[in-house]
Amino acid sequence: MRVVVVLRLVPDLTEELEIDESGTDIDREWIGIKLNEFDDHALEEAVLLKEGSGATVTALALDGEGVDRMLQSAIARGADAAVKVEHGMEHIPDQRTAAAILAGAIKELGADLILTGVQTPEDVFGQLAPFLAAHLDMPTVNAVGGVSADGDNAVDVRQEYSGGMSAILGVTLPAVLGIQTASQPPRYVSGSKLRQAMSAEIATLSGADAGAATGAEITGLQEPERGDGATMFDGDAETVAGKIVDVLNERGLLGG
Amino acid sequence: MPDRPILVAVVLAAALAISGWRFYRVFRPVLSAPGEYRFDELWERFVGVLSNVGLHKRLLKIRYSGVLHALIFSSFIVLFTAILQAFGSGLFPGFSLAPIGGNTWIAGAQELFTVLILIGLGMALYQRVVIKPKRFEGSNKLDALLIYALVFGVVATMTLEFAFHIAAGDDSSAAWRPIAATIAGWLTAAGFSGESAEAGATFFYWAHILVILGFLIYIPGSKHRHMFTAVPNIFLRSMKPKGTLPKADLDHPPIGVQEIGQFHWKHKLDMLSCTECGRCQAACPAYAAGQPLSPKKLIMDLRDHMVAVDHGHSDGVVDLVGGVISEQTLWACTTCRACMEVCPIHIEHVPKIVEMRRTMVEDGRVSPLLQDALGKLQQYGNSFGKPPRQRAKWTKELSFKIKDARKEPVDILWFVGDYASYDPRVQRITVKVAETLNAAGVDFGILMDGEQNSGNDVRRVGEEGLFETLAQSNIDAIAACDFKRIVTTDPHSLNALRQEYGAFGGDFEVLHYTQLLDELIGQGRLKLARGEGATVTYHDPCYLGRYNGGFDAPRNLIAKAGYTLHEMGRCRENSFCCGAGGGRIWQDEEGITERPSENRIKEALGLGDATLFVVACPKDTVMYTAAVQNLGVEDRITVRDVIDLIEVAQA
């Protein structure tokens, strides 16, 4: 089974985000970037499939700053190969464009199963997996919480429903899956493995022209408005903690 | 008896062969172990043997045990002359120590030390059976009692042999043997004389020989091996600085120790030398906290496994981690070094634990909390998961503009550390250190976001690859600056920069800030306003005190600031770890019955008059402040950093 796992770098939300001059994007000049958490789970699931049923895993990403390092750490995790796709854009505008370029690369690589994260902080509707499936003309299941191989041509996937129910779906390959959680939490990859992978070779593909496949365009970006119902406390941790205690006291919510 | 020499020779040869074979079987794993160079600094090594064996330096720290050991140990040396006499005369008729005083002063010494060894044995027996120190829990009591019985047998048969000789009329040494002579008097009264007394002497001669040889045969399988291994084990101890861990070869996995055979020969000699005295167990904060770690049991378990594997009795157990030693046991260690500091034969517990932790980290067998901390360290270079750009955010509180040491030359490069930079509970202290240095006119600067976690605890968690990455990043950042000396707030950073970075190309002169302040006061550059003179106690941080010898500077500062120091019982080298070291601060508290930090606060409260609990480590501030709150004793004692006591005199 050939598994391709699509990885994306996203803004690190531990930093304070600011809107740039254009008013349609965050200021990416100083912002930290990290592997999208759901993609991290997709990668883990791919490596588990490799360990469980002998799949080969290729980590795939669109080229950009920090991508080499991200792909190398995917190799440290257990991916067999890493490929980045050149696209000539400064910033990928949306998932539909990304899917168009990635689909071309996946066709070139050949894959039985494509995994990616269900969503990113910038793709909260989880569009990448369905867009990829459309481009590749494959079935897709999104919000998957665990994949197991069922022979060479099918997988069983778990999908969580509301109310604590989860369904097991049999999916015939090839298919695209949007992963919400891996079957087990992403493993710890030691510093020594990361260091070894620093010299791992990353193959490059040149991406097809995305052409007219543009997605939704952001016309404006703004910080959340403060609602009237909420009181925001300013100040350092100690001051804020003091204010919280005061409020709890006022409302008689503290025992004793 | 013309055939005695042959009989003695045959019996001796047989016993030596059996004992030798048993020794060989026990030591075989040492002979086939990986190499380790321990033959440098021979004079220093010799001096260490003299003080630790000859003067019982560490043994006497527990006075009762030290004294009884000294009695038995010295008697063994003196009574060796009797053994020499017994075998010499047995093998070579006519052999005698008489020409050099065998019937006079040597005989007298043998009598004297017979009494001393009996006192020692009595004390040992009383300790083992009546006092029963907790540190003996888990030790092999039967083994100890058997040894006492054998030693008693050696001495008793010897004395009775001499007594029968005297009763038989050979009184050449009787004047120097008051005890044997007295017993001889009883024997004569009981009717022994002439031939019957000669027969008694012969009987006890053989009994003496056989007990000695029995002892020799028994020893290879007993903790009493230490009679032979203690001296070499101390002589071959690690001479590296205390805070330097052995490197792991990252380019040639496996990293760490998975199987017993991978421990180098000195680790194995340690295991075979352990006397099961339990001093390590009594000093261990993890053991005191109810966690499943006893340094003594760890060494014993490794030893038993090593011998079992060699003898083919290991029941297929190969993995050390999870097989011989549980993961919880290995994670419980705070790497505080208390065990190594008290071990009379210098066993190295902590490096063994770190080697096995390396295996767990490489396999990804880490707890979720630890994984989270290590992941943050990989991503951000600090365990808080805060952006590097926020590292110097605390400097906004300063009354002056702090220098960026990367951009301009400074006299002192201040390595601030993670906790001092990011933890809101510690930033107050960091600001005060900065203001004090500024008031003293020190030309200093920091690395700003160029600084990362020093990696001291990362290395001790067993994450060697990440440690090297962090160390290299810091070394590169430091080496690019123009400075004379480095100062750290955190003793853990102090240890990494001073003792660990050298092996990676970072040779720097590194001070703890307490040492710098003490120096500034000595030079008259920093003048203090005397404080209100409260009585305080001081907790030695492991990595400032035991690991780096920084005992005096904090005490000098406390005194110079006008405070009275009331020491806790466990101070200086015997300080009791707060429980945060070795990466424990990133782990959960599962299995802990009493937090070491709370145990320690209770000790301080027991002093009665100490109102401040003074520390010199950011992690201590965090740990002990929490402990005081948990115990609900905020009204009785307050945790303060040394810097909090320092008030600069107004000019």
Topology record:
The complex is a heterodimer of chains A (256) and B (651).
Chain A: E1 2-6, E2 9-11, E3 33-35, H1 37-53, E4 56-62, H2 67-77, E5 81-86, H3 95-109, E6 113-117, H4 128-136, E7 140-149, E8 154-160, E9 166-172, E10 175-179, H5 191-197, E11 203-206, H6 237-250
Parallel strand pairs in A: 1-4, 1-6, 4-5, 5-11, 6-10, 7-10
Antiparallel strand pairs in A: 2-3, 7-8, 8-9
Helix pairs in contact in A: 2-5, 3-4
Chain B: H1 4-31, H2 42-54, H3 63-91, H4 105-131, H5 141-167, H6 178-189, H7 194-218, H8 226-235, H9 265-273, H10 279-283, H11 285-288, H12 295-311, H13 327-332, H14 338-342, H15 349-362, H16 368-380, E1 403-404, E2 412-415, H17 418-422, H18 424-439, E3 444-446, H19 456-461, H20 464-479, E4 485-488, H21 491-500, E5 510-512, H22 513-522, E6 535-538, H23 552-560, E7 564-565, H24 596-605, E8 612-615, H25 618-631, E9 638-641, H26 642-645
Parallel strand pairs in B: 1-3, 2-3, 2-4, 4-5, 6-7, 6-8, 8-9
Helix pairs in contact in B: 1-3, 1-7, 1-9, 1-12, 2-8, 3-4, 4-5, 5-6, 5-7, 8-9, 9-12, 22-23
User: What distance lies between the first and last C-alpha atoms of chain A, to the nearest angstrom?
Assistant: 62 Å
Largest interface (C-beta under 8 Å): A-B, 20 and 27 residues
- As laid out across the biggest beta sheet of chain B, the strand order is 1-3-2-4-5
Name of the CATH class of the largest domain in chain B? Mainly Alpha
Beta content of chain A: 15-25%
Q: How are strands sequenced across the largest beta sheet of chain A?
A: 9-8-7-10-6-1-4-5-11
Distance between the termini of chain B: 97 Å
Report the total helices of chain A.
6
Q: What summary fits the major beta sheet of chain A?
A: 9 strands, mixed
From the 3D structure, determine the CATH topology of chain A. Rossmann fold
Shape of chain A: globular
Low-pLDDT windows of residues of chain B = none
Number of domains of chain A: 1
